[in-house]
Amino acid sequence: MSTDHDTPTDGDLLDDDALDEHQMLEARAYDAFQEGDLPRAVALFGEVIAIAPEVPYLHYMRGLAHKYLRDWPASLQDNLRSEQLRGEFDVATAWNAGIAATGMADWAEARRQWTRCGITLPEGEGPIEGNFGVACMRLAPWSDAEVVYMSRIDPVRARIDNVPLPESGFRFGDIVLHDGASTGRRTYGEHEVPVFNAMQRLQRSDMATFTVFVQCDSADEIAALGAMDLPGIGMVEDWTATVRRLCRRCSYGTPHQHGDEAEVTEQGTWARERDLGIAAQGRAAVEKLLATWTAAAPGRVLEAIEQREHPLSDPEPGQVWWLGEEEEEERVNQG
């Protein structure tokens, strides 16, 4: 979907007395938005709207600023006003109204907007629980922007399918609201899937994240661990294989060797030391899982089980975090 606003038509033009003030305020409002000063952008678009209340794209732009502030009631109100003032359907307005309605759990309005966009929904009146495919999501795009896979249950709601790093504050199984515009592409099997920015966690999973350090001789050993079906275990992920990150063992204070060992790993040789992320309902379930696994074959070593809870982060003032990967690169280069 596009989030570009339309340009004023002849019917939107103001009288000469108000035109100069309108143009000055509108330029300042756009500047504030592009600089990431969203509260100021909201205030300035409000001043422009007071001068030209019948101009639909002004309401749309204030709704867009409210969206990135994650003020869902205000964003929905602005987008509905933009919808009312337009003479024809506008897809960007409908999508942003649908996102805002979803964020505030107004399922009737969300369903109305998605239907207007031509999206086929499961029947019902409450939350949408469908199959909208697999995609990727940038968690906390204003921060480290860890990218995980997700199952989309709604046009803008998805369940996290990876075990996110604990620093993100997110969990395996979280239900997350994401933006409607793709910010990039990632490979999924033989296909590419879109990447969306996470906006807000809507439902917290009961699966806490445990960081586990083990040693074993092959990928088959890890596969055997992941295949074990024990109560309270949600997922086992071999972060050593799936995550490119600075040394986690050092951050947790677990002794080990660097140097030649890291060089061998980069060349594709199996590294015995593995960093795992395990989603589980409690530590006891993780301990039982690892005890069963290590006892089943020689050479399997459990070094440590760690758990550290981290809060979800929020955007800092002045961050322009909603851009796509190519847009952000272009912005940085221009800066």
How would you summarize what this structure contains?
By secondary structure, this protein is an alpha+beta fold. It is built from twelve helices and nine strands.
How would you explain this protein's 3D organization?
A hairpin with an 8-residue loop joins β1 (134-138) and β2 (147-152). α3 packs parallel to α5 (91-103) and α4 packs antiparallel against α5. The chain is elongated, with a radius of gyration of 24 Å. It folds into 3 domains: 10-116, Serine Threonine Protein Phosphatase 5, Tetratricopeptide repeat (Alpha Horseshoe); 134-206 and 313-334, no CATH class; 208-306, Alpha-Beta Plaits. It has 335 residues and is an alpha+beta fold. A 5-stranded mixed barrel has the order 1-2-3-4-5. It has helices spanning 16-34, 38-51, 56-68, 72-85, 91-103, 107-116, 219-227, 239-242, 248-252, 260-266, 283-295, 325-334, and strands at 134-138, 147-152, 157-160, 175-188, 191-203, 208-215, 233-238, 273-280, 301-306.
Outline the fold blueprint.
Layout (H helix, E strand, L loop, with lengths): L15 H19 L3 H14 L4 H13 L3 H14 L5 H13 L3 H10 L17 E5 L8 E6 L4 E4 L14 E14 L2 E13 L4 E8 L3 H9 L5 E6 H4 L5 H5 L7 H7 L6 E8 L2 H13 L5 E6 L18 H10 L1
Parallel strand pairs: 1-5
Antiparallel strand pairs: 1-2, 2-3, 3-4, 4-5, 6-8, 6-9, 7-8
* Proportion in helices: 25-40%
Low-confidence stretches: 1-13, 246-255, 260-265
The CATH homologous superfamily of the largest domain is termed Tetratricopeptide repeat domain
Q: What is the arithmetic mean of pLDDT?
A: 88
Strand order of the largest sheet: 1-2-3-4-5
The CATH topology of the largest domain is Serine Threonine Protein Phosphatase 5, Tetratricopeptide repeat
Order of helices and strands: HHHHHHEEEEEEHEHHHEHEH
Describe the sheet with the most strands. Answer: 5 strands, mixed, barrel
Supply the number of helical segments. Answer: 12
CATH top level assignment of the largest domain: Mainly Alpha
The structural class is alpha+beta
Percent strand equals 15-25%
> First CA to last CA: what distance?
27 Å
CATH architecture of the largest domain: Alpha Horseshoe
Shape: elongated
Gyration radius, to the nearest Å? 24 Å
Number of domains: 3
Total DSSP E strands = 9
